[in-house]
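**Reference record**
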Amino acid sequence: MKSGQIMVTGSTGYVGGRLVNRLLSSGYSVKVAGRSIDKIKSRPWAKNPRVEVVQADMLEYNSLENALKNCRAAYYLVHSMNPQSRDFSETDRIAAQNMVKAAEKNRLEKIIYLSGLGEKDSGLSKHLRSRAEVAEILSSGSVPVTVLRAAMILGSGSASFEILRYLVERLPVMITPRWVHNPVQPIAIRNVLKYLEGCLENDETTGRVFDIGGPDILTYGSLMKIYAKEAGIKHRFIIPVPVLSPRLSSYWINLITPVPSYIARPLAEGLRNPVVCRESEIQKIIPQELIDCRTAINLALGRARDNCVESCWSDSGFIDVPEWLHCGDAPYAGGSLKEAGYAISFKGITREEIWNRLISIGGETGYFYGSFLWKLRGFFDRMIGGAGLNRGRRHPVDLGEGDTLDFFRVLNMREPILLRLFSEMKLPGEAMLEFHILDKPEGKVELRIIARFSPRGLAGLFYWYLVYPFHNIVFKGMLKNIVLSIKRSLKPEEFKVFPFQGDECVHEQP
């Protein structure tokens, strides 16, 4: 085992999630920090004895300082493109300043930062300007900083790859902005990880800035054509127009792809800048075979088809859970908290069998009943900039806390008892969907489904009473179909769905 702990910030993100695995495979001891301990612990690598999980918030200096104790070096892989950040540039600025002070306090040997390509004097987008500013802030301290500047990262699950994939697969004719002809130098995720790890032990990279890119320099339009050919899709027609702004592009991307507008917009704005490496010095220091775009797309397609996506852009994100969601709160804790619950009792099926079926919910499996209604609700959500059903899920059966699941995020899991899904739809309030599996007398098992909603103003109340009649139809159908999908031989008189008032706490049963 190599000496000294290595901190990986942003460990539940796309690059960070894969970097942790790579460092562990190379014999490093890794410390990972985040605001949600449960979310980090749900990752497969979190069970490795050489992983230490600590709670820290990049915006709270004291927690970050404590998290960096006993660390030799740190990877800085965080950014604030999320719906909670009204100004992601300011949030990134504060986080970087905290990192500088905490790294100096703990006398780190180095910080390694993954930034973005683009020159500051060329009218950079807000997103790329923020990345460049973070690099300057990190480099202003006494701890040496290695900066790797990359353009588009090609790999299964990356936001850039998912945008490319869905646009090409779903649109035979694409009306695109003029930036579709701008030069870009993509790099495969495997090459990015090799560079990140190589900078850790190679002192020649310390305190320097490097541009990293693949062997191909091409346009985004050419990349679309390559994807279509490798995916076996008929020729796509690309029509660039001068009137399609980054804002309009982001709305279009939000509607067609799983990537929401708050991520799509900064990415679309960044494409208006040519992003090509100015130098290639790092290739001499950390030599490796660079993967061309065609091969990188093939590798990503293979992993996506085999459901072997190691990490995904949607993995990142934090749920600021409101107090009314906590089990045991008084009914008045959330103000006018609304609930709708239904339950079903049956014999001959175990809790484990129900659980194994339940955790396949969403994605290609769907919601067991009322597919059209779920798709309609997802469509409306996409139309107003929400997540919709396009996000799907990371894996068809594997599920962990913090995972995205269509327009939900997994909030809590207690196998085989409880599954809590927090809604990330655009709503006039906050919502959660719960599933409880309980042992009952006489060998029976009870499955409950409870919708909880904290309305915001009159609009929230109106929304609740508008959708309430559909709960009765959809939830009853879901419960019946979940049971019948496990044991078709059950007769209707053997199980009945009944209303349930969700005012009990469900604790773990032996």
Remarks:
- Residues 457-484 form the longest helix (28 residues).
